[in-house]
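Pipeline run #58 for the internal structure catalog. This entry was flagged by the ingest filter as a single-chain record with no existing model, so it goes straight to prediction. Upstream metadata was stripped on purpose; only the residue string is passed forward. Reviewer on rotation: M.T. Logging verbosity set to normal.
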Amino acid sequence: MDEQRQQVLKRLAEDIQLRGLSPNTLESYTTHAKIFLEFCGHQSIDQLNTEDIRRFLLQLIHEKKVSSGTVNVYSAASQRGRSSQNPAY
């Protein structure tokens, strides 16, 4: 994983800690955000948008056959990770 993606995950972890969320939430969100970033391949972090999140979630539903609860966790982690990358989001 490249330096920029590692920085996004680090900032995500810090944001979760600042919000006072549990260590389990921290681990879950960072793991799920990492999987989302891996799904996006070599696409620039700066280029990621809500359509990328949507494609990822649809892939989880149709190809991975995950539950709606799992999709919700991935959705939250992906969006939180994106906002950690771009605080203005």
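catalog note: The CA atoms of residues 40 and 52 lie 7 Å apart.
catalog note: The helical segments are 3-18, 23-39, 50-64, 68-85.
status: ready for reviewer M.T.
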